[in-house]
Amino acid sequence: MKRIHYSWFILSITFFSIIVAGIVISSSGVFIDSFENEFGWDRSVIALAFAISLFLYGISGPFIAALLDGIGLKKMMIVSMATLLTGIMLTFIMNQSWQLIIIWGFIIGLGSSLFLTVLSPYVANHWFEKRRGLAVGILTASTATGQLILLPVLAIIINNYSWRWAIGLIMILSFIMLVIIFLFMKNSPKDVGILPYGLEEETQESDEVQKKNPIVIAFNGLLDAVKVKEFWLLAGSFFICGLSTNGLIGTHFVSYCISFGVPLVTAASFLSFMGVFNLVGTTLSGWLSDRFDNRWLLFWYYSLRGASLVLLPYSLSEGSITMLVIFTIFYGLDWIATVPPTISISRQIFGKNKSGVVYGWIFASHQAGAAVAAFGGGIIYKFFNSYTWAFFLAGVFCLLASLFVIIIKKQKSSQLTKEEILNI
Predict the structure, then answer these.
(1) 211 Cβ partners below 8 Å, 6+ apart?
(2) Separation of alpha carbons 234 and 347, rounded Å
(3) pLDDT of residue 421
(4) Structure confidence at residue 214 (pLDDT)
(5) Contact call for residues 392 and 162 (beta carbons, < 8 A)
(6) 18-to-11, 63, 178, 245, 353 alpha-carbon distances in Å
(7) pLDDT for the residue numbered 14
(8) Mean pLDDT by 10 residues, the chain (424 residues)
(9) What is the per-residue pLDDT for 15?
(10) Residue 321's CB: how many other CB atoms inside 10 A?
(11) Which of 293, 313, 312, 324 is nearest to 411 (CA)?
């Protein structure tokens, strides 16, 4: 019987680590009403805390990417999960809004940064020579899996007990993952005496990056990237991607549904249902990104997402469960499907060694967009007592993103794409 390559075990550990970090961030939507009701905090203040978290874990991405080579994958994952666990535990004793901002904005934001930014491309690039696109697709889909499994469970616990019991469940899962990472995670294939999956001969890699300051590496990567037009197009489209996904849907979708009379558990179940289709859509997107023009994949992803977001307010105002189900399926297939093609284009343009840091900056723009939507959605709700304008504007911006990606020059990456396809 053929042994399973250890890269797939690393993929599994990474997958479940991202699930835990992802459910912490995505659970913010089910806690908004609970925090508002128990503590009497203004919704815009609660949204600000979640916005800071989204922005902080995004902006730290390039520095995390640089630190990975110097400190090592295993140590970084242990420190990050321990930080995340600390923030979750501190949630039990908070009673002031400024404490929410520090705990959920800064501590949890930093703790989740590794898992939700550059970990997926880093593991795919260092542990896989073949099936990289598929590996990225599986890992980026794991945030959706967390929603799929846990959001309705958290909502039921909040309804029947309290939000503290829901936080307790997340804390237990975080502790379990911390133990698993400590026992089984490895820094590189060399630690277990193997080559990356699909690599036949060992290649000599430069150690130069490890001798430099991570901050210098991160900013040098940015200075190189800003000279390339494609970086701005990818960063601009990813800003809109973040704005229209975890910033808006992840933070405000449940509350938006509740405002139309949809029960908490039902609204959380719809968000979880998106996770089912997101798992399928993002994994499929990874497979497609190995085989087709990534620009056109992104064009259709953004166009269809924009159309679905414009549709959502009408679905809720009509009270049509059927239309809401259609939106859930349509949007779910598209949620994180943009990530594998974006990572692929970044790697093709900037190369394997630089693409981690460059993608970190591109993802930082994603989270800047998410922060704008998370905080902006709270402000729009405060003034209009409705989220409708927020969702409509997000849909329009998605159509703009589809134009950004389609004007990326194909000739910069076409040859590399063919070479990668030959290696599948």
Answers:
(1) none
(2) 12
(3) 31
(4) 66
(5) no
(6) 10, 18, 12, 17, 23
(7) 93
(8) 80 92 83 88 86 84 78 92 95 92 92 85 83 79 71 88 94 96 90 78 53 72 87 93 87 86 86 80 81 87 90 80 84 82 84 76 87 89 86 92 86 40 32
(9) 92
(10) 12
(11) 293
| Total residue count of the chain as it appears in this document | 424
Six token digits for residue 71: 């400190």
